[in-house]
Specification:
- The complex is a heterodimer of chains A (59) and B (170).
- Chain A has 59 residues and is of the alpha+beta class.
- Chain A has one helix and four strands; from the N terminus they run ββαββ.
- In chain A, 17% of the residues lie in helices and 34% in strands.
- A two-stranded antiparallel ribbon of chain A has the order 1-2.
- Classes of the chains: A alpha+beta (59), B alpha/beta (170).
- At the A-B interface, strand 1, helix 1 and strand 4 of A face helix 6, strand 5 and helix 7 of B.
Chain lengths: 59, 170
């Protein structure tokens, strides 16, 4: 990242590892750990989305 | 699990304008926040520089902020002090949540596209299992993510913005 501070350039470097996943995979992952997907703002044409899931009530 | 130590001092440049202030960060999740019990217990397990955690605490929730990065947790605590709100801030990786933080929580937030830093599907499921473990029965987990499939289709290369981003006069 390059930040311009007056006449100076401030450079910050950090290696970041990403493991991208699809919305479908996330849904499967939530279910795999026992959560119940509740809401999702996902659609094919959004840049970002919000997913909620609930821990189930005891039977 | 990625630790944002070096980036903690310049993290604002990665945060969208609307989420830079605590009230704006909370407003972005109003649909979730509005259904939580008043003064409920909330864990923000990827607190970063703390805008959401501080905003939730300012709304009266009992907030525990955690992050794998000590530098980020220091920034969260500093922001809480600046706003005069009380919260608990602890350094904790997702895989240690149930051992380090005391649940249960009415809600857990893992936002800011953070989950993508878990180590593949095994790491992601391990992290999600820990978040689930500290929720109360019926509690809510909120996750945000980039739409990676859309990003891959439309912008497979390096993206260069068409404007400079200004933060704190820089």
């Amino acid at each position: 990242m390059v930040v311009v501070a007056g006449e100076e350039l401030e450079i910050t470097r950090q290696r970041l590892t990403f493991w991208p996943f699809t919305h479908g995979t996330l849904t499967e992952d939530l279910q795999a750990v026992g959560l119940v997907p509740a809401t999702s703002s996902y659609s094919a044409d959004v840049d970002r989305y919000l997913v909620t899931a609930r821990r189930p009530m005891p039977a | 699990m990625v630790e944002y130590e070096a980036l903690s001092s310049v993290y604002e440049w990665l945060v969208p304008d609307a989420l830079l202030q605590p009230d704006g960060a909370v407003a972005a999740f109003e649909q979730v926040v509005s259904i939580l019990p008043p003064r409920g217990r909330i864990l923000d397990c990827a607190s970063g520089t703390g805008q959401l955690a501080v905003g939730l605490a300012a709304r009266g929730f009992d907030v525990l902020a955690s992050d794998a990065s000590e530098a980020m947790i220091q920034r969260t605590q500093t922001l809480a002090d600046q706003y005069g709100v009380a919260l608990t801030a602890v350094v904790c990786a997702w895989e240690d949540l149930s051992r380090v933080v005391e649940g249960p929580f009415d809600a857990v937030f893992c936002v800011g596209n953070s989950l993508t830093h878990a180590d593949g599907q095994p790491g992601r499921r391990a992290a999600l299992a820990q978040m689930a473990a500290v929720l109360r029965d019926g509690g809510l987990l909120a996750i945000t993510s980039r739409n990676w499939e859309r990003l891959r289709e439309q912008r497979p290369g390096l993206e260069i913005d068409d404007r400079l981003t200004h933060r704190a006069g820089r």
